[in-house]
Amino acid sequence: MNRNARFRQKLQDSVLMHAMSAHNPLSARLAAEAGFDAIWGSGFELSASQAVPDANILPFGQHLEMMRAIAAAVDVPVIADIDTGFGNAVNVSYVVPQYEAAGCSAVVMEDKTFPKDTSLRASGRQELVRIEEFQGKVEAACGARRDAGFCVIARTEALIAGAGEGEALARASAYEAAGADAILIHSRQSTPGEILSFVAAWRGKAPLVLVPTAYPQLRESDIQALGKVGLVIYGNHAIRAAVGAMRDVFARIRRDGGIHEVDAGLPSVKEIIALQGDAVMRERERRYLK
Predict the structure, then answer these.
(1) How many domains is the chain built from?
(2) Can you give the pLDDT at residue 1?
(3) Radius of gyration of the chain from Cα atoms?
(4) 258 and 185 share a domain?
(5) pTM of the full structure
(6) Mean pLDDT of the chain
């Protein structure tokens, strides 16, 4: 099976699938090395890596090319976070085949207005589009895919927007009816109660997707036991880990007046060269340079 088919099968499987965020091929390779089933091509992380807000500021092409580079660097499926779809349903119908051609196995699209505001920002501007409008986007995305294994995941921000569980369930059901292969339900509450209530009330057949950024106490074993969730995404941990490590190392170098103390605790240059795929290049040199 190709990556798309493997992803679709795992999404429907009884065993919970897990995806780690990435903002470049190196972080994706490290996530795959750690054993994650898939890579979350995070719009938040890519925006952060470019030092701009997660508010549709980066152009579509920049995100697409990063997803292409990530997909080329790993063997596991890549899930592209395409925010609101870069426009209306017509735009979506042009965008989705490009992500598919770039090597992604799924896209996640959310039902907020363009330009979006990041979901976890305190007092953020969280405005939802009409249900019918987003159904059209889901239908356009499903109709545009060329490989039946490629998945379209609809993300409702109803809980993020404070619209309540009833609205979230109505939107999730409408998006499933429009053809969505899974429903991502998001919350920024610091405890999982809101999400657990939604999951218990969900009567659809489409598997659910959770992103427990705000409620980290919900473990994979807890999510697995719910029986309705096919995928858990760790949405921003790569960039947070990178920022934390760099901030610490940079501060220590300035404090120590050099790298004499910090250097021994860092990955070696040899390790970085290995992550770059040096062994593969050397083998190609051996075989092809005559």
Answers:
(1) 2
(2) 83
(3) 20
(4) no
(5) 0.95
(6) 96
Same domain as 265, residue 183: no
Name the CA dihedral angle for 87, 88, 92, 93, rounded to a multiple of 10 degrees. Answer: -140
pLDDT per position as a tens digit, 60-115? 999 999 999 999 999 999 999 999 999 999 999 999 999 999 999 999 999 999 88
Question: Over the stretch 209-256, which tens digit does the pLDDT of each residue have?
Answer: 999 999 999 999 999 999 999 999 999 999 999 999 999 999 999 999
Cβ contacts of 251 within 8 Å, gap of 6 or more: none
Catalytic site residue from 54, 83, 111, 181: 54
**Which pLDDT does position 218 carry in this prediction?**
96
* Alpha carbon distances (Å) from 175 to 80, 139, 211, 262: 18, 9, 18, 51
The parent domain of residue 113 ranges over 3-236
**Per-residue DSSP letters for 107-141?**
EEEE-BPSSP--TTSTT----BPPHHHHHHHHHHH
Query: Is 54 known to be catalytic?
Result: yes
Is residue 17 located within the same domain as residue 92? yes
- Determine the Cα–Cα distance for residues 129 and 220; give it in Å rounded to an integer: 32
Cα separation, 119 vs 113, in Å, equals: 12
Residue type, 123: S
Same domain, 120 and 257: no
| Residue showing tokens 């292969």 | 181
